[in-house]
Amino acid sequence: MTKNRNSIYSALLANLLIAALKFIAGASTKSSSMISEGIHSTVDTVNEILLLYGLKKSRKPPDKLRPFGYGKELYFWSFIVSILIFGLGGGLSIYQGILHIIEPELPGDPTWNYIVLGFSFLFEGTSLIIAIREFNRGRKGAAFWESVVNSKDPTSFLVLFEDGAAVLGLSIVFIMMQLNHAYQMPVLDGVASVLVGLLLVCVSMILARESRSLLMGEGIAPETQKKIIALAEKDQAVIKVANILSTYQAPEEIMLMLIIYFKQDLDTADITDAIERIRAAIKAEYKLVEFVIIQPKAYTTPNP
């Protein structure tokens, strides 16, 4: 989590520095695409602040109101970030672009635009490299998309997708700006804004899907479930595990519930001791399991 926070800080600093530059350049050169990029960077800056806020809130200790803690605050704010990318980033960029397609304006001196784009590539590219490094550390050899889907920490891929979209958006603006000034086609400036907006909409839909899945409550992998069942069934008091339920309360916190058939000749004290043994064994083997709830169930012999 600390490593992911480093990538958030780097992205926040990069976006904060270049957002102002893009707006100044866009206003002075009447460039719709640069204004759209300014909107993009501003939204990304707000997003990083919200992610940091979500991280802080998720570490709040459990209380009477939230006995299982506040870990899912991070998932909630990650979902809000994806909505902001869609509405403010994508929506406003598309709107701005359509206005300039309908009423294109002749561009001013492009020098400042190119200077700002150069600095933007430098800052956004550096932030993207940091995000890629942090993401790859957690992949452990898995495929890229598999790592995104299986990740329980949205900060690991949110910043990566944001920075990737930022660099791709800058490339689109750079190409369209060159064509605009080479062929005196100011409509391309609006087209660039629309393309950047559509890019952000696509990214936001991917992020919203993953954040929603985490917010709704993803469980542990089937392979891990089988291992936990086998671990519980090793106990001499257990007949078998009837069911296993799990959910991630936070990226590093799992709540687990087991419904277990215990042997019929056990008294209450024996079952209590067995529950404590099983709970201790699971928590010793799986450090992310914070809560282990075990429900005993009477076993009835099936009819022949």
Automatic annotation (TrEMBL):
Residues 10-216 form the Cation efflux protein transmembrane domain. GO terms for molecular function: monoatomic cation transmembrane transporter activity. The keyword Transmembrane helix applies. GO terms for cellular component: membrane. Residues 1-27 form the signal peptide. Keywords: Membrane, Signal, Transmembrane, Transmembrane helix, Transport. Its main location: membrane. It is found in: Membrane. One of its GO terms (biological process) is zinc ion transport. This is Cation diffusion facilitator family transporter. It comes from Pedobacter nutrimenti.
